[in-house]
Amino acid sequence: MTKNQVWYGELRSARGNTIVIYDQDLPDASSGRIYLYNTNRQAIIEYVKEIVENNLHDLDTHSLKKAQDNYTEAWKGAKNEFLDQHKQHADLEDDVPNTIVTSKDEYDLETSDSEGAPELKVNSENDSWPDSFKDEDEDEDDD
Q1: What is the Cα–Cα distance from 38 to 48, expressed in whole angstroms?
Q2: The model's pTM
Q3: Degrees (nearest 5) of the Cα angle 132, 138, 143?
Q4: Where are the domains of the chain?
Q5: What is the widest separation between alpha-carbon atoms in the chain?
Q6: What is the mean pLDDT of residues 48-70?
Q7: With the CA atoms of 125, 128, 134 and 138 taken in that order, what torsion angle do they form, in degrees rounded to the nearest 10?
Q8: Top-confidence residue, 130 or 93
């Protein structure tokens, strides 16, 4: 792929070849993955970068012009829908509180180990749960 903001190319695979579009304006995919618009599926798909990057090929001038004429409009629609959905997910993540609050349970977070990982201490004096988790089958002999 080139450093163009929008790149049209061909993804060659055992299932066949398809025109794909890469756009630097899309949000980052998960680590080690890449978003490409797949023209056969008419959707933005998350691919494993290590698998597809060697199978992506530039289009010749004629094929590039034809791909731009045939797929740009559908690509832009899919991109707008994708960005709207991604923005909704990002907005939801902003609404998630950073701490967990319980209504009646007492809790105390303390840093107790040398690595600084928090340890959760819960007051369980008045709960009805047993303090051990013994399997019912432990007392029986296996024959």
Answers
A1: 14
A2: 0.60
A3: 175
A4: 6-95
A5: 76
A6: 96
A7: 140
A8: 130
Query: What's the CA dihedral at 134, 135, 140, 143 to 10 degrees?
Result: -140
Q: What whole-number distance in Å separates Cα of residue 116 and Cα of residue 109?
A: 11
Q: Are 57 and 12 in contact (CB under 8 A)?
A: yes
Complete edge-to-edge strand list for the sheet that includes strand 43-48: 43-48, 33-38, 16-23, 6-13, 56-58
Interatomic CA distance for residues 105 and 123, integer angstroms: 7
Which of 77, 15, 72, 84 has its CA nearest to residue 47? 15
Give SS3 for 111.
Answer: strand
Phi, psi dihedral angles at 94 (to 5 degrees): -65, -25
8 Å CB contact between 63 and 71: no
